[in-house]
Amino acid sequence: MYKKLAQVLILMLGASAQLTAATPAATSSTAQANVQVMPAIAMDSLQRARTYRIYLPSGYEESDRRYPVLYMHDGQNLFDDATSYVGEWGVDESLNQLAQTCGLEVIVVGIDHGDKLRMTELNPYDNERFGSGEGNAYVDFLVKELKPRIDREYRTLADRDHTAIMGSSMGGLISNHAINRYPDIFGMAGFFLPPTGLRQAY
Predict the structure, then answer these.
(1) Which of 90, 120, 135, 149 is 20 to 30 A off residue 49, Cα-Cα?
(2) Can you give the C-alpha Rg of the chain in angstroms?
């Protein structure tokens, strides 16, 4: 199962690499039927609320299996052209195909970004241009608030070997930070083009 989750990370990074140019937002949703947009929940560590999106394997309702979980940032960009400003990653389409062809099945939790707050929420470092980094509080939200909720409400494999985190750009930066801050929670991380130059020391 650990190898399968690692394969998913590699394939999703490949999908991200293809999105090199912005595309117009779609006027209707392109999200697959097994993606759910969840009501906003409180982020106690940041004193605000946030929507998240859940991808469940297509056979989830008909089985009693438990699944590994991949946490991803910028949820608006993962599944739906209608909510992405750069064109969706196609995470749902890719995983549905991988489930059919390779038996790779995973739950994906996509946390929406905070729009104007994205540059501080996903940054663990203070920055002269963007202000005080809120990355520690954001990662604490993932680990102490969101993950326990997901593990309660869904059939997950909750141990570190079956829990991964992944993102692109600022999402890559915070994924790297998350696995270093909580190596007992996240067993692997994927990051594509993390903007390391944002660190104040640089």
Answers:
(1) 90
(2) 16
- Is the four-CA dihedral 111, 161, 14, 151 of positive or negative sign? negative
Distance of alpha carbon 186 from alpha carbon 192, whole angstroms: 17
Q: How far apart are CA 47 and CA 172, in angstroms?
A: 23
d(CA 144, CA 126): 23
Helix residue spans in the chain (DSSP H):
2-17, 91-102, 118-121, 135-140, 147-153, 170-181
Q: What angle do CA 101, 161, 79 make, to 5 degrees?
A: 50
* Distance between CA atoms of residues 184 and 49, nearest Å: 26
The span from the CA of 135 to the CA of 184, in Å, is 18
Give average pLDDT by consecutive 10-residue segment, the chain, 202 residues: 59 52 63 94 96 95 95 94 83 91 93 92 84 91 98 98 94 95 96 61 32
On whether the CB atoms of residues 149 and 42 are closer than 8 A, the answer is no
CB 179 within 8 A of CB 171: no
pTM (predicted TM-score): 0.86
In the chain, what is the straight-line distance between the N-terminal and C-terminal CA atoms, in Å? 38
User: What does the block give as tokens for 60?
Assistant: 């989830």
Return the amino acid letter for 165: I
Q: What is the DSSP string of 157-189?
A: --SGGGEEEEEETHHHHHHHHHHHH-TTT-SEE
Cα distances (angstroms) measured from residue 127 to each of 4, 88, 140? 37, 29, 20
